[in-house]
Amino acid sequence: MDLVTKKLIKNGYRITRDRDKTALRVRIPGGVLPARYLDLVRQIAEQYGDGTIHLTTRQGLEIPGIPLAKTDEVNRLIAPLLRGLEREIGVPLDADDRGYPAAGTRNVTACIGSRVCPFANYDTTALAAKVEAAIYPHDFHVKIALSGCPNDCIKGHLHDVGVMGMVEPLYDPARCISCQACVNNCRQVVTGALSLVNYRVVRDGLRCLGCGECVLKCPAGAWTRGKQYYRMVIMGRTGKKNPRLARPFLEWVDEEVVLQVIKNMYAYIDRNIDRSKSKEHVGYIVDRTGYPVFRDSVLAGVTLNNKARVARHIDWGGYRYERSSNMV
């Protein structure tokens, strides 16, 4: 990869099939963009691109068809959006007319969260802004997704880090009418963590996902939302070598733990990345060093709350194309 190509990619542009043209990737943390910036994106697409805008799988916008010779002009045009990101989200970009300062760490994605969805246990947009401020700009290849509940609509299980909202359901037996609406729902669509014993609901703390659906299903208000927590799943990925789903790493942790673990992960990458390669995905670094090294590195200096649980070991699973024997 030549120096010009490296600079182009770092600047937020994509290498395309047309050697004389590129595509600008507009970063939108959490998938929420103030509507006033849409006119700016449209202007760039019509004036410099091919007049189209691609909605990416990472909740960003991509403007194709931009001549390579025009990237400096486009960078000057996109500057107000970058300054808005710095001002509104708190990302220390030192934004100027040179465009995006890094592209290795991908756009932080998020479901719509508790601002809209009744199932969400937290404000995913707000946490996406905090995560963005903690990790960007950076060149390390990392993908992070935030989901408001264990439904995982944002597909955090396909990311290096998936963060899912949990809530501690609080039960008031005096209000319970033993209708079993919560018990039946948990058995049918969740994990069967609830059971009725002597006309009172009993919750199995080991089986409970903290989804909060018992609160939504109760007609008598016997369940209420307690403290907010998070589950972190790690090292899921697609790709050609070893696709796999992320596995649970932490459960019932608070926001401070989530942010500190993510920050520590970047220090872990910096210590262990193979710098002979043009880039190395964090999941493959974990494969090389082993889970215990990763676990101890990202939890260093982190004070876990009392309810927190940590995975003792992780069976990554997935599959490798060259080992597949299912095809005949």
Description:
The chain is α+β, with helices and mostly antiparallel strands. The chain has 2 domains: 3-89, Sulfite Reductase Hemoprotein, domain 2 (Alpha-Beta Complex), CATH 3.90.480; 109-167 and 229-323, 2-Layer Sandwich (Sulfite Reductase Hemoprotein, domain 1), CATH 3.30.413.10. 30% of the residues lie in helices and 20% in strands. It contains 9 helices and 12 strands. The strands form 3 sheets. Strands 5-6-7-10-11-12 form a 6-stranded mixed sheet. A 4-stranded antiparallel sheet has the order 1-2-4-3. Strand 5, helix 4 and strand 6 (144-147) form a beta-alpha-beta unit. Helix 4 runs parallel beside helix 7. It is globular. The two termini are 38 Å apart.
Summarize the structure.
By secondary structure, this protein is α+β, with helices and mostly antiparallel strands.
Layout of helices and strands:
Layout: H1 3-10, E1 13-15, E2 21-26, H2 38-47, E3 54-55, E4 61-67, H3 71-89, E5 109-110, H4 124-135, E6 144-147, E7 161-171, H5 181-189, E8 194-197, E9 200-203, H6 213-217, E10 223-234, E11 247-253, H7 255-272, H8 282-289, H9 291-298, E12 309-310
Parallel strand pairs: 5-6, 6-7
Antiparallel strand pairs: 1-2, 2-4, 3-4, 7-10, 8-9, 10-11, 11-12
Helix pairs in contact: 4-7
Structural features:
Sulfite Reductase Hemoprotein, domain 2; Sulfite Reductase Hemoprotein, domain 1; 9 helices; alpha+beta; 20% strand
What name is given to the CATH topology of the largest domain?
Sulfite Reductase Hemoprotein, domain 1
Q: What strand order characterises the main sheet?
A: 5-6-7-10-11-12
Q: Assign an overall shape.
A: globular
Which structural class fits the helix and strand makeup?
alpha+beta
Our count of domains comes out at: 2
